[in-house]
């Protein structure tokens, strides 16, 4: 699913789902993934639910396309109005506490549970990828939440405060065990930044280092509060919970 598509095969003219009209229903559009030739169509244009684009069952997405339904973001499953980006990322930095399962009887006649806002890093990342970088989610511009190939031009002076970064493993030695640091680079084709994850816990450092090493060919997505690291085009964040990281295969 996607919240935007292109009107032409060359991907020069975008169409946002929120701007689609009734007459657009039935038209064929192009997947935001340049490598995917899926036939995209507008869905839910008539109802009160949020509209989105989905691929034709006969001309679907290529394997592992981020806009394929099982990987994509369905806006109707989440509560956009209750989403607070900074608070959501702050929650990801909090170590998980073991929770005891409790049996709570369902209330008689209760309806469907109210949707919750995106909470996990995978949910927030999928939401950001589904929308165009210039679009907004609960009033916040997508490009100000996620740094990727589309939004890197919005960061000419660096990456500061709460952000999700899309990175990749640095070539060669990507960690410093003496400093408990892991270094990633931006996955963009333009400006290159170095992102340093600084750990207080040696156990967590080793766990994350091993996860990245075993998947070093894949994208690494990290949520954090970023600040200057003291060297050119390098930024760092404190890494305190494995909830801050996702590896995108």
TrEMBL record:
Source organism superkingdom: Bacteria
Organism: Paenibacillus pectinilyticus
Protein name according to UniProt: Uncharacterized protein
């Amino acid at each position: 699913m996607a919240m935007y598509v292109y009107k032409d095969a060359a991907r020069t003219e975008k169409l946002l789902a929120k701007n689609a009209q009734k007459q657009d229903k039935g038209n064929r559009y192009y997947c935001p993934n340049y490598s995917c030739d899926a036939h995209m169509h507008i869905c839910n244009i008539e109802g009160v639910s949020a509209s989105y684009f989905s691929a034709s069952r006969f001309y679907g997405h290529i394997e592992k396309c981020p806009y394929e339904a099982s990987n994509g973001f369905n806006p109707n499953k989440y509560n956009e109005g209750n989403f607070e980006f900074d608070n959501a990322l702050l929650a990801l930095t909090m170590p998980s506490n073991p929770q005891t399962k409790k049996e709570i009887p369902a209330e008689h006649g209760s309806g469907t549970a109210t949707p919750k806002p995106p909470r996990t890093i995978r949910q927030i990342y999928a939401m950001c990828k589904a929308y165009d970088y210039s679009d907004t989610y609960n009033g916040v511009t997508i490009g100000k939440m996620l740094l990727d190939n589309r939004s890197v031009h919005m960061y000419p002076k660096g990456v500061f405060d709460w952000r999700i970064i899309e990175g990749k493993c640095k070539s060669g030695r990507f960690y410093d065990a003496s400093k408990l640091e892991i270094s990633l680079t931006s996955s963009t084709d333009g400006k290159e930044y170095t992102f340093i994850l600084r750990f207080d816990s040696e156990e967590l450092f080793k766990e994350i280092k091993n996860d990245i090493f075993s998947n070093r060919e894949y994208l690494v997505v990290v949520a954090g509060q970023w600040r200057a690291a003291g060297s050119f085009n390098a930024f760092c964040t404190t890494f305190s919970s494995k909830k801050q990281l996702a590896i995108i295969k």
